[in-house]
Amino acid sequence: MITDDDSKKLLKDFKKVFATKEDLDLKVVGLVHTTELDQMFDAMESRLDKKYDKVMNVMDKVVGELQNIRDDMTMIQGHKDQLEDHEDRLEVIETKLAISP
C-alpha cells in the first residue's frame, strides 16, 4: 500500500523531472515581457488603423457617388410626367405646323 509519505516523495520526484503549470507560466512570462507585448500590440493597432482609414475613405467616396445617383434619379422621376407631357405637346405642334421631327 502507498502511504502519504510515499505519495509526497513521488510528487517531489515528479516535480524534478516534469514541469508544472506554474513553471511553464513563469517561463512564458520570462520569454515575452509585457512591454514587448504592448509595443507589438501598438504596432499592429497602428497598421490596422491605416488600413481601416483607407477602406473608410474609399467607402465614403462610393457612398457619396451613390447618393448623387439617387438624387439624380429622384429628380428625373419627379419631372418624368412633365417631360412626357412636353413630348405630346411637341407632337401636336409639329403636326399642326407640318414640321417633321
Radius of gyration: 40 Å
- In whole angstroms, how far apart are the ends? 115 Å
Major sheet: size, sense and barrel closure? none
Tally of separate helices = 4
Beta-strand fraction estimate: under 5%
**Rough outline:** rod-shaped
Write up what this structure looks like:
By secondary structure, the chain is mostly helical. It has a domain at 33-101. It is built from four helices and no strands. The longest helix is centred in the middle third of the chain and has 45 residues, at 34-78. The relative contact order is 0.04.
Summary keywords:
single chain; 101 residues; mainly alpha; 4 helices; rod-shaped
SSE layout:
Elements: H1 4-17, H2 21-31, H3 34-78, H4 80-97
Quick summary of this structure?
With 101 residues, the chain is an all-alpha fold. It contains four helices and no strands.
